[in-house]
## 1
Amino acid sequence: MRLPITLSEIGPRISAGAFILNSGLGKRGADEGTAAGLHGFAAGTYPFLKNIEPRQFAQGLAAAEIGIGALLLAPFVPTAVAGLALTGFSGGLLGLYLNTPGMRKPGSLAPTQDGLAIAKDVWLLGIGVGLLTRGTIDRKPQQVRRAARTLAKANRTAGKAQAKAELRARRAARA
């Protein structure tokens, strides 16, 4: 059985997956102060998060990061699925960057010193979009080639069966 990824996808999936998995594992045992800081930062940009307790938010974020990291690292997960998860996750991170005051220089997308740590996550978005694209658009020609090979094999098998049937018919006619 073929894996649903190609050799060119392994590097981006390992780099992003290991990074995110490590981040999630580090947040599993977040203390109250860390949980409150993570929650406050996210809730400032995404107000719907204000109703969640900081500890619960930190645990949910850790679980999400562990899940996305594992998804990227698992070679049996289709590339489009891994790319979609990474694109959504990194889009949320970039939303923090774009919508949190003080992260960008005024009138610019360029990061301030405070925004640099989050602005760097644009590489995750790039990998996610690349994987999503590769997993959807670039797979169609491969599927067509695979179907053509299957059809050619079926035609060869049918041709052999027809040749055998004709040979039997000629032998039966002679007998």
## 2
Amino acid sequence: MDASSTYQDSLPVSSDALLEQLRGWGLEFTFHEHVPLRTVEDAKSVEAGLVVEGETAFRVKNLYLRDKKKRNYLVTLEQDREIDLKALGAQLGVGNLSFGSADRLMENLGIRPGAVSPLAMVSGAEKGVTFFMDAAAKTADRIYMHPLVNDRTIGMTFADLAVFFEKMDVSPTWLDLD
């Protein structure tokens, strides 16, 4: 099964339900539909259509990781950041990290590979997933991410994303990587 909106009804929270919840909270976002994207390289192929002149965009790369104690982490970074998992584990103070399996991704974040996003904390918060986010997102005009499926992208301001985190009772740990 792929991570597109075709199969969103098999997720714990569908993309449509998430978007409706965001609207219900009065959060604004831009909405884009596109071909399914599984990687940063795939995403770069459609980004030209999402560019707003003069806007500082923060485009994400998301990592679902686990440590040896089986604790789960979602790490959201600027898409072009180079990542060394060993160094990242040391920086986060959690030891060695490895990528979580597709089954664990569904169990803990309620999504499939290719659709990982900060918005997956809608499920991850109650599952005890620890969330880390690149502090550079705070200075962006708009943060672009998948709404639980990989054939849609939404763009939110940092202020609206912060309200989402507050509603989900998520306190991101901000990473200063510069």
## 3
Amino acid sequence: MATPTNTPLMPKATAVWLVENTALSFDQIAAFCRLHPLEVKAIADGEAAQGIKGLDPIITGQLTREEIEKAVKNPDHRLKLADPKVRVPEAKRRGPRYTPVSRRHDRPNAILWLLRNHPELKDAAIMRLVGTTKTTIQQIRERTHWNAANLAPSDPVTLGLCSQLELDLEVEKAAKGMPVREAGDPGAATLLPVDETVTPEGLVGAGNYGSGSRGEEADDLDADKIFAKLKSLKGPDADAEEEPEGF
């Protein structure tokens, strides 16, 4: 007996309606509703599915009248589900992320790392990334966790609790909700502009010490004086060795 690839919605209620409103055989109804033919016979005899209201598969879009008429005329024909007019996407499961037992002891360290390095993340974001509870996050934040003394911040990506893409998305989402800092706010400090760090000669910080003692010493340096001092330290023997013959 051929079995359809898909099962109709509420198969017993559909079988009740087909038994009461069509001349289909028990085998045809059983094949369509994925029931045993004896179960369909029991429904027809009133021994099973008592109190179940029949569900019209035509109204629900699971069958067409032409398909039913075709099956009534040909007892060997098996009913086929009609193609749905609207494809409903499969709902994604929402809730805390499942963490393997072998990695659950790493979650407090990952939570501590997120609290220190990304304080803009809300508790809900941390719960999605690490798969923890709000109570645990609060305990680690307030240092009241039972193992607070032994916690060491660790990157959740390195620990395998989440991916780098998931972490970046949560951080980006949290950053959008942060208020814009003003220019005078210490937290809004950025790197110095290029013209303030590069000298006109193109050297970064070379010889530009201001008007202090270092700048004056740099101006007083003379190459001839330095080499003269070096020659006097070498002595006359060293000078004789350095002079080639013939001079």
